[in-house]
Design brief:
The protein has twelve helices and twelve strands. It is α/β, with parallel strands linked by helices. The strands form three sheets. Strands 2-1-3-4-5-11 form a six-stranded parallel sheet, with helices on both faces. It holds the Pfam family Peripla_BP_3.
């Protein structure tokens, strides 16, 4: 009968490496180490490598909470997005995190999953950590969330949407205008019977705004838009089913705008299955300019929302405010705009002039 010998239990050291330990090894002052942790680029190139090496050798982990108690702020930024699986918001968060990392700040990230009331819960939780700043998505909030943001003792940034009265900072673009831009393009290429497909537009306010902008511009041209609101998540399957439903109600539909590229991809698939030529018979446009949009068949006309630019601009603005804690800058709105990217799903290739 075999026996397994018990390995001696190793005891973890309870002696935490301190900033003073790092300073002693690097032969610099503790204030230089502190500055390096906050903003490495502000430290002299002569001593920065020594500090970095000492941190790595000693395995030093900054106690951000302890360092922030005196200032009554943690070096954390609370960020609330509608969905972690949405590529738009992922790109924005990635850009923010890269910039915050440069300054020694960390993200507290939460997703509402478009559930009413979830935003207030996340905001309350993040505020309990005394963050340096708070970032929320959109500028339409319920009364509870609005009350929390109004009394927050930290800058509040609203992203991906523009409104009339920012708490501190808004960085985004007009979704109404994005919808209008798609409509004007469809009208320019001769659309006569149009539809809009969105997902959960009761809770997805920005998708609803794009729908309203599209419908409003079409109505001015005398075209009444049929709106198909998919109850579940945005997906190619949802887009395919929505096109099938629309064709039953509007057999002559010749232009479809979608609340995002994922739905539009499903519309393209269904059109191909039914033998509907795109764009000759049916024009299709999306929103988001996702990586597949340029490579699908045919390439998809869409709106480029500049998601990365939104995240970077928010981080830069908040870091400037964090560097001047005594200042109270005026509320600011930053419109980063968007770009209409026209591809073959709405516009046939120009005829060969030599033909």
């Amino acid at each position: 009968m075999s026996q397994t010998a018990k390995a001696p239990r190793s005891r973890r050291s309870t002696n935490r490496v301190t900033m003073d330990d790092v300073a002693a090894r690097a032969r610099v002052s503790a204030s230089s180490v502190s500055l390096f942790l906050r903003n490495p680029e502000a430290v002299s190139p002569r001593i920065a490598p020594r500090i970095k090496q000492a941190i790595e050798v000693l395995g030093y982990v900054p106690n951000l909470l302890a360092g922030s108690l005196a200032a009554a702020r943690t070096r954390a930024i609370g960020v609330v997005v509608p969905s972690l699986g949405n590529a738009f918001f992922s790109a924005t968060v990635a850009a923010m995190q890269k910039e915050f990392d440069r300054h020694g700040y960390q993200l507290l990230l939460g997703a509402t999953e478009y559930e009413p009331g979830r935003e207030a819960d996340l905001v309350r939780t993040f505020l309990s950590w005394s963050p340096t700043a708070l970032v929320v998505t959109g500028c339409r909030h319920d009364d509870e969330t609005r009350a929390l943001l109004r009394t927050a003792r930290a800058p509040v940034a609203e992203m991906w949407e523009l409104g009339e009265q920012p708490f501190d900072l808004q960085v985004g673009f007009s979704h109404y205008e994005a919808g209008e831009a798609i409509a004007r393009h469809m009208l320019d290429i001769g659309a006569k019977r149009a539809a809009f497909i969105g997902a959960r537009m009761t809770s997805d306010v920005r998708a609803r705004q794009r729908c309203e902008g599209f419908s409003r511009a079409m109505l001015k041209a005398g075209i009444d838009v049929h709106v198909e609101d998919v109850p579940g998540d945005a997906s190619p399957k949802a887009g395919a089913h929505a096109l099938a439903d629309i064709l039953q109600r509007m057999p002559e539909v010749d232009a479809i705008a979608c609340s995002n590229d994922v739905i539009a991809l499903g519309v393209l698939f269904e059109a191909q299955r039914r033998g509907l030529a795109v764009p000759q018979r049916l024009r299709v446009a999306g929103f988001g300019d996702l990586p597949f949009s340029e490579e699908c068949v045919p390439p998809l006309t869409t709106i480029q929302p500049r998601a990365t630019q939104i995240g970077l601009r928010i981080a830069q603005e908040l870091m400037e405010r964090a560097a001047r804690p005594g200042d109270e800058p005026e509320p600011r709105i930053v419109d980063v705009g968007f770009e209409l990217v026209v591809r073959a799903s709405t516009q046939s290739a120009e005829p060969d002039q030599d033909a």
